[in-house]
Structures are given as structure tokens and as C-alpha cells.
Write a structure and sequence with these properties.
It is a single chain. By secondary structure, the chain is mostly beta strands. Helices cover 4% and strands 42% of the residues. The chain is globular. The structure holds calcium ion (CA) (2 copies). The site of one calcium ion has 7 residues, from loops.
């Protein structure tokens, strides 16, 4: 695989110094919600923002944030302090468009700088009309964002229906949702990149195992999907999607499937929809809402801090201003209910993420031109079970053993004691690519690693769960 990174240089000039600012520590003022007997406290983490669009938990254990006008920032989750990194100079903010999606992941090239991460952003710009592009930056804690590289550009765009949620997958490919850009005919056109979920490599090329060879299209028939999340335990992908005046949707995204827009809206319930759905491999939504909520960010919760939200999607909405819990069946194939945690209390809500400590972060969108901002808007809100976090910190456990190590044809994992909860085993190669992932069950103490097909080299083996993790171990695989 070819990896091209421009030399350090122009990016340095664009990179702002870390600036303290409008962030303020979470105050004592909080509101509480009862979630199945658990007291969940809500407070403001960061205030004074302008139209956040994406909010995620980064590999550096900081929150990462985009604001639609073009600013990319980190937020210290302990204090709420906003640390601006860069304001992109060529963003066009108009209507619903501007700087939108963000993903942060490992640097996958051969010689990363200390602490280096790869940062992907998608935004609208002007070049013979409004367009959209996907750009990758390098990030280091000392330099900031540098060396932008365009992965995909010149996508047709409009002031509405820009999609643009990004998601990095464990195989280091990238999913990107695109809207129909106010041209409904694009969604069913397999040669158009609008109205799709796209899948790209981290260098912007077509992965060899995409559903259609040579095409970035992973699924089609979308109107304006703005939520996207993967559940690690099942590998399933879920997306929320804005409908027109009817049928907002949550979809289970499967490769090569058609999601119906514009002919089928919501379920395939009308006669014309039934014919179209049968002929076009249409995947009906898991849920649909009429009247619409304006569904936006989508996340997944499965942490013992708030047991009442176990194995649930958490979704925020703009027009309805709801935080909604959507519990999943154990298989993840269906949604088994829906509960609104609140409706309208904090105005329009765009983005949501969950931290490894089981806290939930929500970003408001009250300065997007359609809201009624208060003096402190826009804000990042945090929801937490303060009792749980005070008494059950994440425990780092003693090391496990790999035997034999170095290995050639077989090796196995030996834990110091049987697991007290379910955990996951993961193995990454020297480039940070996931090569193996498997669930471990409570009571398990040993597991074999299927090393027979792996190339010789050094691997990192990790075992971890929601409340405990082991120190990672290095595995050396000798040539055979
Ligand atoms: Ca649909
Ligand atoms: Ca319908």
C-alpha cells in the first residue's frame, strides 16, 4: 500500500497554538434523570460554542469537536477547557452545510511522529459552485494539525442534505455518509456518490472487498444520513437518516443494500413501494418516525455505569430536541423499544458520543439558524452516574502470558485468573491494523490465537472489558 504524506510545512503555519478559552469546568449545577433506578446527572461541560457538528472520544482520551464554521478543537474532558487546533480557511458555511464530519484514528504509515493520529474531516467549499470534500490531516500533540491531503473532492453539494457522518472501522477503512444534495435522482444512481454510504481506504481508494468492484458505494438509496455507529460485539452498523416531512429512519446498514429513497420512504408499506422494494433489494428501516424528529447523531451504550442503557443505541434529534434510548435485541438485528430521556429541554441536538468510562456527551446546535440559543449556547453536555465513577474506576490488571512467545505455528493466551466479566481479545500488527478480534466470556482463562495465517513480525495483544483491562503484551511471530 502506498502512503503519501506531504512534508511538514504549510500545515504548521495554519496550526493555531492551543488556546484556553470559553471552556469552563463542569459546575455543581446539574439536573438528574432516573434511568432504571440509576441517578444520571447532566451538567454543562463546555459553553460558548457555535454550531458543533461532530463530537467524538479520541484515542488520546480527549473529546474532539467540529464547529460548522470551520474550527476543529479538542476538549479536555476533566475540565471542559476548549483547545482549538485549526480553523479551516476554505470552508463554505451555508444553510446546513460547512465543516461537518470528523474521525480520529491511528496513524497507519510506517514512521509516525510521537503521539501521531490521523484526523479526517469532511466539509463544503466553493469551486464552481458548492462542493464537498474529505481531507486527512496528520496530528501530533506538539505540532497540532498539519499536512492536509485530499482523499475525495468535487462531490456535488447543496445548502441542504449533505450527510457527512464519518466512521473509522477496525480494518482501518472509512465510512462516509453522503446526502442527496437536494437532487433526489442521485440516491438511486449507482455512479453518483451522493445519497450513499461510501467506504474508502485511508488513502481514499476503493477497498478490494467493497460490494461492487471499483466503486466506493457501500449502500445506496439514502436521503440525508447524519448518524452512524458500529457495535463492536456484533459488528453491526446503524445509521439515522432524515426523511422529508415523513419517515425519519434508523437503518441497519448492510453492504450492497438499497435503502429506498426517494421511491420508498420508511417501510415498504404502500403498493408502489412494495413493488420497488421487492425488485431492488431494499432494506427497510428498523424504526421510522412520522412526524419527523430530525434525527442526527447516533451512538451506542453498553457500560455498567448506567445499566438501564445496556446494549442500546442513543440518538439525538434537532427539531424534536430529544435524547432517545433505542434498546437493541441481543443479536442487534432489531430495536426492541424507545424511551425519550428528555424532549426539547436543551434545544436542538446534533452530536453524541460515549466515553470508555461510560459518560455520555451531547453537543447542541442552537446557533445553526433554526434554534433559539441561550447565552451559553452552544454547549457540550455530559451525562454521568457520579456514584459509579467514584467507586469503580477502570482497573488495570496484572499481565497475562502468551505461550509460546516467540511463536511459529500456534500460541495461546493465559490469563492470571478467570475473567470476572466478558471481555474482548484484540491483536494489532506493527502498523496498528486489527488482525484478530474475539469475545472472551466470564470465567474464561485461556484462548488460542489463530496465528497460522499471519505474517512473521511483531504484534500487540490486548484484553479488555468495560471495567477492567490488562496491560498489553507483545507477541513475536517467527518466520516459518
Ligand atoms: Ca429508507
Ligand atoms: Ca413507506
Amino acid at each position: 500500500m502506498k502512503h503519501f504524506f506531504p512534508a511538514l510545512g504549510p500545515g504548521l503555519a495554519l496550526t493555531a497554538l492551543l488556546v484556553g478559552g470559553c471552556g469552563a469546568p463542569a459546575t455543581a449545577q446539574s439536573t438528574t434523570y432516573n434511568v432504571g433506578g440509576t441517578t444520571v446527572s447532566l451538567s454543562s461541560l463546555t459553553t460558548g460554542l457555535d454550531t458543533p457538528w461532530e463530537l467524538l472520544w479520541g484515542p488520546d482520551d480527549f473529546l474532539w469537536l467540529t464547529e460548522r464554521g470551520g474550527r476543529i478543537s479538542r476538549i479536555n474532558p476533566a475540565t471542559g477547557q476548549l483547545l482549538p487546533l485549526l480553523t479551516l480557511p476554505d470552508v463554505t458555511e451555508t444553510g446546513e452545510s460547512g465543516l461537518l464530519g470528523l474521525a480520529v484514528g491511528p496513524a497507519v504509515h510506517l514512521a509516525p511522529l510521537p503521539g501521531e493520529l490521523a484526523v479526517y474531516v469532511v466539509y463544503n467549499y466553493t469551486s464552481g459552485g458548492l462542493k464537498e470534500k474529505l481531507v486527512r490531516y496528520r496530528y501530533t500533540p506538539t505540532i497540532g494539525l498539519l499536512s492536509p491531503q485530499v482523499l475525495l473532492d468535487n462531490l456535488p453539494a447543496a445548502s441542504i442534505h449533505s450527510g457527512s457522518r464519518l466512521l473509522l472501522l477496525p480494518d482501518n477503512t472509512l465510512l462516509m455518509t453522503t446526502g442527496d444534495a437536494a437532487n433526489t435522482s442521485t440516491a438511486q444512481n449507482p455512479t453518483s456518490l451522493n445519497g450513499k454510504v461510501l467506504r474508502l481506504t485511508v488513502t481514499g481508494t476503493v477497498p478490494a472487498d467493497n460490494p461492487t468492484p471499483g466503486s466506493l458505494v457501500y449502500s445506496l438509496g439514502h436521503r440525508n444520513p447524519q448518524g452512524l455507529v458500529r457495535v463492536a460485539a456484533t459488528g453491526r452498523l446503524y445509521s439515522s437518516e432524515h426523511g422529508p416531512n415523513n419517515d425519519d429512519e434508523v437503518n441497519l446498514i448492510e453492504p450492497g443494500r438499497n435503502y429506498g429513497w426517494p421511491t420508498a420512504q420508511g417501510f415498504c408499506n404502500l403498493p408502489a413501494e412494495q413493488t420497488f422494494c421487492q425488485q431492488n433489494n431494499v432494506r427497510e428501516p428498523l424504526l421510522a418516525w412520522t412526524p419527523t424528529l430530525a434525527v442526527a447523531g447516533l451512538s451506542y451504550y453498553n457500560h455498567p455505569a448506567i445499566p438501564g442503557w445496556s446494549n442500546s443505541l442513543l440518538m439525538v434529534s434537532l427539531k424534536a430536541g430529544k435524547l432517545t434510548q433505542l434498546p437493541l435485541a441481543a443479536t442487534g438485528a432489531t430495536i426492541t423499544g424507545q424511551t425519550d430521556v428528555w424532549t426539547g429541554t436543551y434545544g436542538r441536538l446534533r452530536a453524541i458520543c460515549v466515553s470508555p468510562q461510560g459518560r455520555v456527551y451531547v453537543a447542541t446546535s442552537n446557533r445553526d439558524g433554526r434554534g433559539s440559543p441561550t447565552a451559553t449556547d452552544d454547549r457540550v453536555l455530559v451525562l454521568e452516574n457520579r456514584t459509579f465513577t467514584a467507586t469503580r474506576p477502570n482497573r488495570i490488571l496484572p499481565a497475562f502470558a502468551l505461550y509460546p512467545n516467540p511463536a511459529s505455528h500456534a500460541t495461546s493466551l493465559h490469563l492470571p485468573a478467570p475473567l470476572t466479566t466478558a471481555a474482548r481479545l484484540s491483536v494489532h500488527d506493527a502498523l496498528g491494523r486489527l488482525v484478530h478480534e474475539a469475545p472472551l466470556v466470564a470465567g474464561q482463562q485461556r484462548a488460542a490465537l489463530p496465528v497460522a495465517g499471519w505474517t512473521a513480525g511483531v504484534y500487540q495483544v490486548r484484553v479488555g472489558g468495560p471495567t477492567q483491562s490488562f496491560a498489553p503484551q507483545r507477541l513475536v511471530l517467527a518466520g516459518r
